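lol ok so funny story. i was supposed to be doing the assay writeup but got distracted and ended up predicting the structure for this chain instead. priorities right. anyway since i did it might as well share w the group, maybe its usefull for someone
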Amino acid sequence: MDHLRAKGFKVDARNVMDLDAVKRKHGVPEALESCHTGLIDGYVIEGHVPADVIDQLLRERPKLVGLAVPGMPRGSPGMESSGQRAERYDVIAFDARGGTRVFARR
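and the output, tada:
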């Protein structure tokens, strides 16, 4: 959330008791689940998706449900760790039919 705020996004953080229900309601595929679920302008953002990739999504407006970074890869926003090398990871796009594709690589 700090990463998004620093990049100019307004963040309304809410702790919910049943995050799995939120993920199901908004169509996050189980294989793409992570620790955070966000909503922005009709899209779902799952996990540690970089702000510049969210900006790209909002500019391009593809027909997707959302973007996800499964797990918590080292080096993704919020998972920076001094002294540890960042992992390469993919930002995955997912659609309403269950299709997925790589949207961005980091």
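The CA atoms of residues 51 and 57 lie 10 Å apart. The helical segments are 2-6, 19-25, 51-60.
back to the writeup now i swear
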